[in-house]
Automatic annotation (TrEMBL):
Residues 30-309 form the Ppx/GppA phosphatase N-terminal domain. CDD domains: ASKHA_NBD_EcPPX-GppA-like. InterPro entries: ATPase_NBD, GppA/Ppx_hydrolase, Ppx_GppA_C, Ppx_GppA_N, PyroPPase_GppA_Ppx. It comes from the Bacteria. Pfam families: Ppx-GppA, Ppx-GppA_III. The gene is ppx. This is Exopolyphosphatase. Residues 318-489 form the Ppx/GppA phosphatase C-terminal domain. Keywords: Hydrolase. SUPFAM superfamilies: Actin-like ATPase domain (SSF53067), HD-domain/PDEase-like (SSF109604).
Length: 503
């Protein structure tokens, strides 16, 4: 494990923030301090766990899990004094791909002591861009950012702080090493033929984005990963520091084919093992995207996590922007959405249910209320099912995979019959909290059926299996359509064993 800086934290822990990136090649932990608006690095810890090497036929091996858990226990020791809301931990491609990933994540969260969120490839790419764009000068140039990881490679074209194109491809230095450069004994097998196999495989993956990206164009290219940093250290001497040239990578690729290795000082054994694949992948990227040189950035996903965490705690949340964009894109009636949100949150706050660890249930319920009619642009009939499908399959910037799943689930459950199978499929530990959110959203849509402001929201109690709504005197008699809708809602809820009373 590589520890660059080690400064003991003082009692002013509210100024400290932690980002933990459980990458397919390396696990990274970054601890920073915010000092009068500036972010100062306090500690960096890296362990080349290479969890992707332990992914066999989609199953994460016990050996790989043990390496990971040992690393996370060390991380846990370092962050115990820092507020949990200042710590962000995410898992990427290898953990997304593992069929036994959920079981491992349960153990991993116990070892680390904080929730771990899986992020999609799109979100991984966006976070990389956030990290890089906040650590370079804003010269208004259009930039391409590339991050070669252990199991995936991210490509982002953006300008200043705004990404335009984001893609994550299944190209990784660890997975390609295992697949193309490792023999039956687990030893490296580097020949011109095996290197070419890596190059061809990477090139084939790149075909899907080559035309789109080259047509978009960019002014400057940045590389962000351990592979990129290692390659800069072995560039031919005529290459400027911090820059990777296409000519230099071609020379490294040629030397690898001839000598079957490249002498690399001050590089760990694990990094040396995956470097040949990294060089072949990099050559394919430079050739396919016609890049002559790229600048290497010190920042990547973990720095993006830091900026996201600080932004959210200072009430600048990219997820709010994502929801607003989708409201506009699907022509959602914002006034009605806000009415439903107001009543749903009013009911939810009265219930004060247990919530899901690592998830701000109030925020997720609010966003689901704002988006509950997103499917209306497709069809009124079954629009809640259309809404669920849109949210399940959209790229939602800022949302991790579980948050996106919750958002889609709530929208899909907000009206008509409640699918008992969907309830049973929920995580048992989270079922009550999610059902509370869903019922509050359902009741809010019923109470706002007139699409007019509700002056007197009802009070709500939930005891055992009975929900009771209490309205102002004569309110129900004066609103017979709402009363009829509540009768129908009571029938729907009774099918899942919940009684709804209203007075």
């Amino acid at each position: 494990m590589d520890v660059n800086v080690d400064i003991t934290l003082n009692n002013e822990t509210d100024h400290y923030y932690v980002a933990i990136d459980l990458g397919s090649n390396s696990f990274h932990m970054l601890i920073v301090r915010e000092n009068r608006g500036l972010i100062e690095v306090v500690d960096r810890v890296k362990d080349m766990v290479q969890i992707a090497r332990g992914l066999k036929n989609g199953v994460l091996s016990e050996e790989a899990q043990n390496r990971a858990l040992e690393c996370l226990q060390c991380f846990n020791e370092r962050i115990q004094e820092i507020p949990a809301e200042h710590i962000k931990a995410v898992g990427t491609k290898a953990l997304r791909a593992a069929s036994n990933g959920p079981e491992f994540l349960y153990q991993a969260e116990k070892a680390l002591g904080v929730p771990i969120q899986l992020v999609s490839g799109y979100e991984e790419a966006r976070l990389v861009y956030v990290g890089v764009s906040n650590n370079i000068s804003q010269d208004h140039q259009k930039r391409l950012v590339i991050d070669i990881g252990g199991a995936s490679t991210e490509f982002i074209v953006g300008q200043d702080y705004s990404p335009r194109l984001l893609e994550s491809l299944s190209i990784g230095c660890v997975t390609f090493t295992e697949k193309y450069l490792t023999n039956a004994k687990g030893e490296l097998d580097i020949t011109p033929k095996t290197l070419n196999n890596v190059y061809i495989a990477a090139s084939e993956e790149l075909e899907g984005i080559r035309s789109i990206y080259r047509n978009e164009g960019w002014d400057i290219t940045y590389g962000a990963s351990g592979t990129m940093k290692s390659v800069t250290e072995i560039m031919p001497i005529m290459t400027p520091a911090g820059i990777i040239s296409r000519e230099g990578v071609n020379e490294l690729y040629r030397q690898l084919g001839e000598n079957k290795e490249i002498k690399i000082d001050n590089v760990t054994k694990q990094r040396r093992f995956v470097m040949p694949a990294g060089i072949a992948i990099l050559k394919a990227i430079l050739d396919q995207l016609d890049i002559e040189e790229l600048h290497v950035s010190d920042a990547a996903l973990k720095e993006g996590l830091i900026h996201e965490t600080i932004g959210r705690l200072k009430h600048h949340d990219i997820r709010d922007e994502t929801v607003t964009k989708h409201i506009a894109k699907y022509h959602v009636d914002r006034s009605q959405a806000e009415r439903v949100k107001h009543i749903a949150l009013s009911l939810f706050q009265q219930l004060q249910p247990a919530c899901v660890d690592g998830i701000n249930c109030t925020s997720v319920l609010g966003w689901s209320a704002l988006l509950h009619e997103i499917g209306l642009t497709i069809s009124h009939s079954g629009y809640h099912h259309h809404g669920r499908y849109i949210l399940e399959n959209s790229d939602l910037a800022g949302f991790n995979r579980y948050e996106q799943y919750l958002l889609a689930t709530l929208v899909g459950m907000h009206r008509r019959k409640i699918n008992q199978n969907r309830i049973e499929a929920l995580n048992p530990a989270h079922r009550d909290a999610i059902l509370s959110m869903a019922i509050c959203l359902r009741l809010a849509t019923v109470l706002n059926r007139k699409r007019d402001d509700l002056e007197f929201p009802p009070s709500i109690t939930w005891t055992d299996k009975t929900i009771t709504l209490t309205f102002e005197t004569q309110w129900l008699e004066n609103n017979p359509l709402t009363q009829r809708s509540l009768t129908q809602e009571a029938e729907y809820l009774s099918r899942i064993g919940i009684a709804l009373n209203y007075y």
